[in-house]
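During the reporting period, our protein records have gained a structure token line. A sample record is set out beneath this paragraph:
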Amino acid sequence: MVKFAKTILFVKPEQCKKVYEFYDKFIGLKTVCQIPNYAWCEFDTGAQSLCIHAEIDEDQHYSDRTGTHLVFQFDTEEEIDNLHRNFLDAGYELNEDYKTIKTNEVFKLAHNEKAGLHFFIVGDPAGHIVQCETKIQELS
């Protein structure tokens, strides 16, 4: 089963605190987690989460890319692998190849759990960024 899990708002690092305060203080959303420097914040909005993410590139440097990121959660890694293959077979160019990431300190701090993600990212026909993921047990 697939569920719409979260919307991630990528923002410039210097805007993270202000964006957090907007949704926390003014809109009144309940904070699920918020790490120091506001680089990752997650709000409970009911059926899905609204997240703020400071945009960082693969080398962990902040970048200027901002935008909205839609996240769909699947039950199994097999579903992710099959969907990834279907997108490739249909000619979609993926923003980055699918991968499995181990739990890292930021993930542990933000979610207080020992899990990782198996995911890939693809753009929809209008250019919106879509992440398809499943949680996995922590890797050894």
Summary: Residues 102-106 have pLDDT under 50 and may be disordered. Residues 39 and 51 are 10 Å apart (CA to CA).
